[in-house]
Amino acid sequence: MKAKQIKPGIYWVGAIDWNVRDFHGYVTPRGTTYNNFLIMDRKIALVDTVKREFADVMFDRIRCLTEPEKIEVGIINHIELDHAGSWDLVVERCENITLYATERGKQGLERHFDTTGWDIQTVKTGDTLKLGEKTLMFIETPMLHWPDSMMTYVKEDRLLISQDAFGQHFAQAVLFDDLVPQETLEDAVIDYYANILMPFGRLIKAKIAELQKLGLEIDMIAPDHGVIWRKNPEKVINMYLDMANGKAEEGIVIVYDTMWHSTEKMSRAVLDGILDEGMYAEVIKLRETPMSVAIKQFWKYRGLLVGTPTLNNVMFPTVAEFLQHLRGLRPSNRIAGAFGSYGWGGGGVREALQVLKSMKLEVVEPGYEVNYRPDKKDYEQGYDFGRMFAQKVREYHSRFK
Ligand code: FEO
Fold first, then answer.
1. Backbone torsions φ then ψ of 336, nearest 5 degrees
2. What is the pLDDT of residue 189?
3. What is the pTM of this model?
4. Residue 1 pLDDT > 90, yes or no?
5. Which helix (H) or strand (E) holds 190?
């Protein structure tokens, strides 16, 4: 296990998790990495750790450079356990280590570990720590994406170690942004943002503005997951700003489920109408698609159509679950509508529209509903509904140009 140099005297000592496919309920088809960094200076500093099951891999990489016992400084950018899970093992080995975290980081660490005897110093934005030749500066980033979160800037190397921000669940052995297929990388950035950072768009804009105001020159961003941005760090910053500003493709995602195929048939009528209106569309059946994939595809496009049968006067459970996930992610700048079949009382489409409105999305009413099974007339109604919705999406999308 070798350490890999990313800047003079700064090494990646992390782990590649090729096999993880379920990251606390979020699917990770490309696996992930747990990036952490060893700074070799007069004082040796470790920035973040790795998920506990990979602690031995981390120690092996560190041993390529030094005895782990010689680490004197531990920087805790984030206390979620995929990064903080091995701190007790580090402290156990390093008698002289001082840990640095935000106040909320210290509090959280004390809940996760028995920290009796640990030397934990708290830091705030602008605080600096001289290691020898290199100077670390800390930048608190509360709620990006936990209250404890912070970033560490290595002044002399213009390196921003950004914890989860700007990361991607993308296992790869090459480490840098210019060595991977760009389309895969962009998809991984969107996936990560949509499923983790979507609620924090306003904070993200403010934090990027703050970084710019601090006048930090950044020529490398090293997140705690995925590739390190050495060639084009502006690319991910601009992607974040675009997403925080509500940028989306002009297009529609139809997210549906079905019991006896009626709502499914309705989705085809709606799709035909959308396509004849000249608009791009994708279709996702929820029972066949992981939730985080549905969320990512929702986030890519301006329009959302939710298809739900009525079951016991309410939405179909998978559709309710999708909307519940979405509600927690507080989406904005999207237009939505709903359709679905019902047997007798109805209620599913009505409820879906209510939930969409509660999210303060632009909602097109009424929905498109069919009793039991769509016949030819119902198909035509669905086709017209699709055309009408596509026109609304086009009009709404033009507000963002
Ligand atoms: Fe990758 Fe919030 O932990």
1. -140, 160
2. 97
3. 0.93
4. no
5. helix 182-192
